[in-house]
Design goal:
- This protein is of the alpha/beta class and about 375 residues long.
- The protein has one domain: Aminopeptidase.
- It is built from ten helices and eight strands.
- Strand 6, helix 8 and strand 7 form a beta-alpha-beta unit.
- Helix 5 runs parallel beside helix 10 and helix 8 crosses helix 10.
- The chain starts with a helix and ends in a 7-residue tail after the last helix.
- The N terminus is likely disordered.
- The chain binds zinc ion (ZN).
- This is Peptidase family M28-domain-containing protein.
- It comes from Lipomyces kononenkoae (Yeast).
């Protein structure tokens, strides 16, 4: 897969502009410790990702009463908005809360420059359960930051993914690690990196290279409604993978589908509990996992981690050769898309219990995940000189 993108890129440039352009390889570098420090200084994750941080504009209880534009404005110019606390409500598919959360996420990206929003809404057959009918509406949210000069042409996207739905039972289940924290981290990451990405693309380097874009997906319907089976789970990711496989980006490129624009599919799940241990799952993307581990080492060396004294979050010494966790990456993995699954093994002890709430999060771990993932993505996108 690594060799695929530059070749495709060269062909596109040739056909689109009738000039031979040698595309640079994907950036995929690492920020230095001082660059990581500059990145965190420019946009600290806290208080926005602190589980206990509310502003009057974004408390979970009054989210529904506010218009999206009010939330973007945040009341006062420059006010830091809470990103995690609004997510800490039940978000079952088809519920009013799910609509509130979608509006919250959409509002966040609407307030950032140059992002394009897409929705993938569909109805799926679901098992009869309590008051749930045999069919339910689901909606995936997709946001893209596309490199300049690639309008109407295929692009290459680093694709970051988390699910925003929560389990329908036990009643009132919140799913703080599953996956409110990953969603909030992705919102923070987009807010933090957008100015630096646009700065790179405005520079000469951005103009002559075939840059990697950023795509962020918030999946609906990851959880089973009754019991996990191939049919009762992964509603959103199964639908989106199928849709993108059939969606041909540009007619003259025949077989190239939206699916194939994914440079790497990075799935975050079950993050936010103390002392996580995330293995590398796939040999083919161990380069990415080892890169994430190297970023973590630099984050800790630079004194940017709050969960000090803990073992590293990323465990490169354990590549899970024949094991995997069924999750939103599977419909994409089965279609040949390279995946990095960032999920701890074992799962957090609060997994699928009422204790998976804000009170049981480790705010230090939430902070460190935000710094680590954002720092790694900044390196991947070659932002080191644009911070
Ligand atoms: Zn779950």
């Amino acid at each position: 897969m690594i060799g695929r993108s530059p070749i495709i890129c060269g062909v596109f440039k040739l056909l689109a502009f009738a000039t031979v352009v040698t595309c640079l390889p994907p950036q995929r570098s690492q920020l230095t410790e001082s660059q990581l420090s500059a990145l965190v200084d420019s946009h600290p994750p806290f208080p926005a990702l602190n589980p206990n941080y509310y502003t009057t504009a974004t408390t979970a209880s009054n989210l529904s009463a506010q218009s999206v534009s009010d939330r973007i404005g945040g009341g006062n110019a420059g006010e830091t908005l809470a990103l995690l606390t609004p997510m800490l409500i039940p978000r079952a598919p088809g519920s009013d809360n799910a609509t509130i959360i979608r509006d919250f996420i959409k509002g966040h990206f609407h307030g950032l420059s140059n992002w394009t929003a897409f929705t993938d809404g569909f109805t799926a057959t679901v098992p009869e359960y309590g008051g749930i009918p045999g069919a339910l509406n689901f909606t995936n949210l997709i946001f893209r930051l596309t490199p300049p000069g690639t309008d109407h042409l295929p692009s290459r996207y680093l694709t970051l993914v988390a699910h925003y739905d929560s389990k329908i039972s036990p009643f009132g289940f919140i799913g703080a690690t599953d996956s409110a924290v990953p969603c909030a981290i992705l919102m923070y990451l987009a807010e933090s990196l957008t100015p630096h990405i646009l700065k790179r693309w405005k520079s000469d380097l951005g103009a002559i290279s075939d840059d990697t874009g950023l795509q962020i997906i918030f999946m609906d319907g990851e959880e089973a409604l009754v019991q996990w089976t191939d049919q009762d789970s992964l509603y959103g990711s199964r639908h989106l993978a199928q849709l993108w496989e059939s969606e041909k980006k540009v007619a003259q490129f025949g077989r190239l589908s939206t699916l194939q624009e994914i440079d790497l599919f990075v799935l975050l799940d079950l993050l936010g509990a103390a002392s996580p241990a995330v293995p590398c799952f796939f040999e083919i993307t161990s380069w990415a996992c080892r890169g994430l581990a190297e970023t973590e080492r630099r984050v800790r060396n630079a004194g940017l981690a709050k969960a000090n004294g803990q073992k590293p979050f990323i465990r490169t010494d354990s590549v899970m050769k024949n094991a995997f966790v069924d999750d939103d990456h599977m419909p994409f993995l089965r279609r040949g898309i390279p995946v990095m699954h960032v999920i701890p093994i074992p799962f957090p002890v609060v997994w699928h219990t009422m204790n998976d709430d804000g009170a049981h999060l480790s705010s230090e771990a939430v902070h460190d995940w935000a710094v680590l993932i954002t720092g790694w993505v900044a390196g991947y996108l070659g932002l080191g000189d644009f911070l």
